[in-house]
Write a structure and sequence with these properties.
single chain, 143 residues, alpha+beta, Heat Shock Protein 90, 3 helices
Amino acid sequence: MSVGPQVGDQYRKETVDPHETTVNLGLPADPGSIGVLRAVVASVASRMALTYEGVDDLRIAAAEAAALVLSSAPEGSQLCVDLLPSDEELRLTIWVEGAGGSATIEERGSLAWRVIEGLTDDSAVTDVHGSPAIELRLRTIRA
């Protein structure tokens, strides 16, 4: 039996309730930012009731979606991601801030879209502040 602080206590963190946290991420609109996006998505998803495969699937789908929205990103713009966890699902919305109406997203049917559709429960093209966006949804194992 030990009393008081233990080795490693400074690294032990309380688990964050993912259902009370919305993550908003802004990165340079550059393909090099996709690695950071993948890491953040995996971190948030791993705190939810998702299988290991589900976490990995969402990480890959998010990278594909980011590549699609970055394909028409103007120089100096920002890659934006909102991660919205709930008991039933994790929803991601990915867009380029400042892309405006001139930006386009590749048509469904491409390899990237097939990957996204195969790895998520739902995907859609939406609009965020006048810029095209991709929304991904992955249900938790409790749903």
